[in-house]
Amino acid sequence: MGEAGMGQDVPRRRKEGRGKDGLPAGEAGLGQDVPRTGETGQRPQGVLYLCATPIGNLEDITLRVLRILREADLIAAEDTRHTLKLLNHFGIKTALTSYHKFSGDTKAEHLIRLLAEGKSIALVTDAGTPSISDPGEGLVRRCVEEGIPVTTLPGPCACIAALTLSGMGSARFCFEGFLPTPKRERAQTLDALRCEERTAVLYEAPHRLGKTMQELAASLGARRVAVCRELTKIHEAVFRGTLPEAAAYYGGQDVKGECVIVLEGVTRAAMEEEKRKAWETLTVEEHLAMYLAKGMARKEALKLVAQDRGVSKRDIYNALI
Ligand code: SAM
After folding, report:
1. d(Cα 295, Cα 154) in Å, to the nearest integer?
2. Where are the domains of the chain?
3. How far apart are the C-alpha atoms of 131 and 125, rounded to whole Å?
4. 0.85 exceeded by pTM
5. Cβ of 261 less than 6 Å from ligand 1
6. What proportion of the chain, given as a percentage, has pLDDT over 90?
7. Candidate of 124, 126, 133 to mutate for ligand 1, largest count of ligand atoms within 8 Å of Cβ
8. Domain at 30-156, CATH homologous superfamily
9. Neighbouring residues of 44: CB distance < 8 A, sequence distance ≥ 6
10. In testing the pocket of ligand 1, which one of 132, 260, 263 has its CB within 8 Å of the most ligand atoms?
């Protein structure tokens, strides 16, 4: 069942023997493509392990993550109290230190030093995959700069869980994370989403869900949406409908639990239709005058007006008579 056997077909390099989870100890796969020595080839280097942890259901932890959490010299956690609960649940006693968005450069440099000295560090965040809308990115970048090996232990990620559950197209998608808070950036992101053809995945806090759905509805119209709440937890729920329906549904209620918004991409035909409607706020004369004012020749301007409005040039000539 599950991922049993994953550790068996790759070289084992660290503490041999069987861990509490019954699998052989060792670093699956890592030995094949990640160097263990520094530039000189003398000094052993540590490895930064990006450990994905459950976003709700503790059974979603992988066997490999459990083993690395046990074997690492240190676990760097976004919130040590939160991670301690996870470690206690699995009887893991590895030393813990904090690494969060307010930790600053000093803490990152301290971890880099430990890695350079040969210590192995498991990085975990409160839930899901480190670096996805949470701390981790900066530390990985520093490791890359310093030539320190980094490897990933894939597992739960709210974005992927929601996308796959949404029923929306998953062949092409984009991840927006949390919408920006500053007004201008937020408006720019919403604007970009208006013509986004791919499925878009957004993170949102429950207390802001109602307001965000209203904003999305005002900006994107009756686009289809799936709101995935409390994924992998007892009260997991998915709302599927249009943005105005979602805005009405979540507007008046006190929403609980973390949530992910999955937005359907816009189709080319819908975009064309929207553009056409926008031009219809101008009369044909005004539309033509706009291009002429830009210094365009009348023939060229007429052609563009026809194109914008999705009609023939003859229709435009007739309208101008
Ligand atoms: N790194 C994490 C990941 O891999 O998904 C995401 C961290 S981000 C700080 C937290 C956001 O993830 C929440 O605000 C919510 O949007 C989403 N999230 C996390 N757990 C979730 C769950 N069980 N159900 C729905 N959304 C969740």
Report:
1. 57
2. 30-156, 159-266, 269-320
3. 8
4. no
5. no
6. 63
7. 133
8. Tetrapyrrole methylase, N-terminal domain (3.40.1010.10)
9. 36, 37, 38, 118
10. 260
